[in-house]
Amino acid sequence: MSKSFFIFCLLIWGLVITSGFAQKNEYIGGQLLDAKTDEPIVFASIRIKGRSLGVISNADGGFKIPLKYKAYGDTLEISSMGYESKELLIKELSELELHILKLNPGILNLSEAVVSANKKRELTARQIVRKAIRAIPDNYPVEPFSTVGYYRDYQLDSIQYVNLNEAILEVFDQGFDTTDSISTKVKIYDYVENTNFKRDSLALQSYDYDSKKRRKVIANAFLSAHGGNEFNILRVHDAIRNYKINSYSFVHRLKSDLLSEHKFSRAPDTYFEKEALYTIKFSKLLLNYSAYGTIYISKNNFAVHKSEYSVYDLRKKREDGLLNKHGNRNRLIFEITTEYRESNDKLYLNYISFHNTFRLWDPPKLVTEYIIPDFELKCFVIGFNNKLKLEDAQLVENYVVKVKGKTIKFRKAELLDSQDVVFLYPMMYPNKAEEMLREIEIAARKDKITNELFEIKIINISDVEGNVINQWTSKDYNQFREFFPQKIKPNTVALTDSLYMKKQFPIFENQPIVKPDNFDEYWMNTPLKKVN
Q1: pTM for this predicted structure
Q2: In what order do the strands lie in the sheet with 45-48?
Q3: What is the average pLDDT score of the chain?
Q4: pLDDT digits (tens, 9 = 90+) for 298-314
Q5: 3-class SS at 255?
Q6: How does 359-393 read in b/e, with b if 16+ C-beta sit within 10 Å?
Q7: Residue of 278, 272, 238 whose CA lies nearest to 131
């Protein structure tokens, strides 16, 4: 994307959002940008100081904070890995405008980077990762806790969000010593099928790997539907939380498989909220796939603060021809980003984003509606559902007909003025043509038409809109599932009642809704309608 085009999109974005705030000023809105590049800063933390509440910036760097916190005189704490942190008084921000906030790339001070123990300094990338995996039971909560946060799933076509679903959830986790998929319970505080965004019923359907047509699939990959519950799918892809069990392809079981499956290397150190971090790159190359990951590990206690993982299909190239972030033109299959942050001496989920591509197949838009014999004209009459291109319809080579295994030649194909009916005249004597047509018509009335008796194949014909006869078409989408905790509640146990989410059903289908007394503390960080 050119810089001028990005600036243009940003200006349009600002006009749309500013106008929106002027009409509905329940929130203070901002956008985080890199101070050097003016590119959006994605997945930055925007926290309300002292309240353990906050949001994560969207893919456009945008975020919103409820206006009520302005009256409380609160302060925003803004941080992102590799950037200098920033604090702002909310009272200085207007609800009538979009605030462009810039963060400077951080420079790790020498005093932070130097490790006093020579042994630590000499650790290899693989040794660091091994220590991090072994330290998971010490660095993450093994006691029950809950997380209240903003969940969303949506698709992206080339220009806009599609099928945006949003929810506020409380996730009751029994601790990292338990199996997440079995023991974790979820309460839904609220959910919205956002009708301000485009809805596409076909893109909403479940993945279909079993039917003959395979309408919705991830090319060269398989994703279990988990009952159609997108939040369950997202939770499974947190390899840190599920480090004892299989999580996703190539990482498999983090505890036992990550090290054996990948090559590792050190990258320049970075930091997050003043804590020095190792940066470890890892990769895997197979015949048809490549995988790349980055993991950020504390130099203090080997806690994993962030993990990024991307898998590409080496057999497919990006349609736009551009390089992806790993320097190749291969098509993405899926990518997962997970970040944890410290609270009360343990690390809790800060956000998780699971992004995969999928292909949606549409049935042919041009098909035959009927084929009947005309005994008077001694021809076949073929009806179509759309108007045909004249030059295609009149080529007799485009009609391949076999009767009793013998290929029939045609002397003429005539398109009627309506452009949706073709008269197809066999190249044979009239009495022979009538005899053939009557035999086919009698078999049809008795419902005894077989391929041995009559077979027709129509090829290379298009309608006036360019649709090809009997051709399925496909469209590629990007699918996202994301969860952004807004509040961590340590030592919280799920109460025994029947008002938890039914995991075997879609999250937005006949689920119980339970709004707590403090529901207004939480909010949905709805993204923009347009995508830059």
Answers
A1: 0.77
A2: 53-56, 45-48, 75-79, 86-89
A3: 85
A4: 999 999 999 999 999 99
A5: helix
A6: ebeeeebbeeeebebeeeebbbebebebebeeebb
A7: 278
